[in-house]
C-alpha cells in the first residue's frame, strides 16, 4: 500500500509540473522541485515502518528521519509541546499585518512584501510579521549581499507575500495550481509563499534544529528564489548546508543551516544544482 501511495504522489507531482508549465508561467522549476521534494519527504514520514507499524500522526518537533546521519555530536533537546491549536481548516480569509514602512537593509533594490495570517488561528499577524522581518534583517540574511533591502507593506504593490494558513486552506491554495499538499507541506506558487500552520508550529521532521531556525529557512530559501538564487548543494562534509540547498532531501554530509551568510558576512554557498 505504501508503494502504491508513493507512486500516486510521484504521479501527482509530475502532473503538477506539467500543469504549471502550461498554465502558470510565474511558477519556476525551483518552486516545482521544492514542492515535489516536500511531498516525497512527507510520504516517507507517513509510510509504515519496517515492522509493519501504522503511520504516525502529526509530526512532532522532536521527530527526525530514522536513517539520518548528522555531523553534530548530539541533537538539541526537544522543545516543549506548543500550545497553539492547529485546526484542520479555516475560512480561507486572511488578515494583513500592519506595516509602518520600515525598510531593513541598505541595498538599492527594495523588495516589498506582505505578511498574511488566516483568520481564526492563534497567531497574531503582527507577531508573524515581526518574526519574518527579523529574519530578513538578520546580518546572516539576504541584506548582507548589499544589493537587496526589504520593506513590509500592508497595501499597494508588492514583490511577494508570505501567507500562514491552516492545512486545509493550504491544500486549496496550492491545489488551484494543480498541487496536492495533503495537509502536510508548504508550497510556493507565483508570488505567494504559502506556509502550512502545522509546519510553522511543529517544524519539519526532516529539519534537525530549533523551530525558529526552521522558520528562518523557509523565509530565506523562498526569498532567495525571488531575488534570483537557484538551488545549491553541500560544499563538503561538516560544512553548513546552503540556505538554497533542498535540505529536506538530506544534508549530504553538511550541517543543517538556515542562513545564507555567516556572522562574518561570508556567503555559505555550495555548487549550483542545474
Automatic annotation (TrEMBL):
Region called Disordered, residue ranges: 46-101
Q: Signal sequence: where?
A: 1-18
Q: Which SUPFAM superfamilies match?
A: Metalloproteases ('zincins'), catalytic domain
All residue ranges annotated as the DUF3152 domain in the record: 85-251
| UniProt superkingdom | Bacteria
What keywords does the record list, in alphabetical order? Signal
* UniProt-listed Pfam families: DUF3152
Low complexity bias: start-end ranges: 46-71
Q: Which InterPro entries match?
A: DUF3152
Q: What is this protein called?
A: DUF3152 domain-containing protein
Q: Whose protein is this, by species?
A: Streptomyces thinghirensis
Amino acid at each position: 500500500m505504501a508503494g502504491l501511495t508513493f507512486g500516486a504522489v510521484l504521479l501527482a507531482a509530475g502532473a503538477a509540473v506539467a500543469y504549471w508549465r502550461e498554465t502558470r508561467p510565474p511558477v519556476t522549476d525551483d518552486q516545482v522541485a521544492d514542492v515535489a521534494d516536500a511531498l516525497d519527504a512527507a510520504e516517507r514520514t507517513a509510510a509504515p515502518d519496517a515492522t509493519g507499524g501504522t503511520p504516525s500522526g502529526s509530526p512532532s518537533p522532536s521527530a527526525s528521519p530514522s536513517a539520518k546521519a548528522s555531523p553534530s555530536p548530539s541533537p538539541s533537546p526537544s522543545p516543549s509541546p506548543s500550545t497553539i491549536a492547529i485546526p484542520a481548516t479555516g475560512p480561507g480569509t486572511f488578515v494583513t499585518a500592519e506595516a509602518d514602512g520600515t525598510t531593513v537593509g541598505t541595498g538599492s533594490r527594495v523588495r516589498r512584501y506582505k505578511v498574511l495570517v488566516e483568520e481564526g488561528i492563534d497567531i497574531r499577524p503582527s507577531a508573524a510579521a515581526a518574526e519574518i522581518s527579523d529574519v530578513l534583517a538578520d546580518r546572516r540574511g539576504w541584506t548582507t549581499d548589499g544589493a537587496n533591502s526589504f520593506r513590509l507593506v500592508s497595501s499597494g504593490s508588492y514583490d511577494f507575500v508570505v501567507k500562514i494558513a491552516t492545512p486545509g486552506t493550504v491544500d486549496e491554495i496550492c491545489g488551484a495550481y494543480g498541487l496536492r499538499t495533503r495537509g502536510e507541506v508548504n508550497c510556493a506558487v507565483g508570488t505567494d509563499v504559502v506556509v502550512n500552520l502545522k509546519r510553522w508550529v511543529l517544524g519539519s521532521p526532516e529539519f534537525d534544529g530549533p523551530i525558529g531556525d526552521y522558520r528562518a529557512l523557509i523565509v530565506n530559501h523562498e526569498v532567495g528564489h525571488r531575488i534570483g538564487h537557484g538551488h545549491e548543494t553541500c560544499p563538503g562534509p561538516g560544512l553548513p548546508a546552503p540556505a538554497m540547498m533542498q535540505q529536506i532531501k538530506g544534508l549530504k554530509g553538511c550541517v543543517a543551516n538556515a542562513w545564507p551568510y555567516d556572522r562574518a558576512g561570508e556567503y555559505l554557498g555550495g555548487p549550483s544544482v542545474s
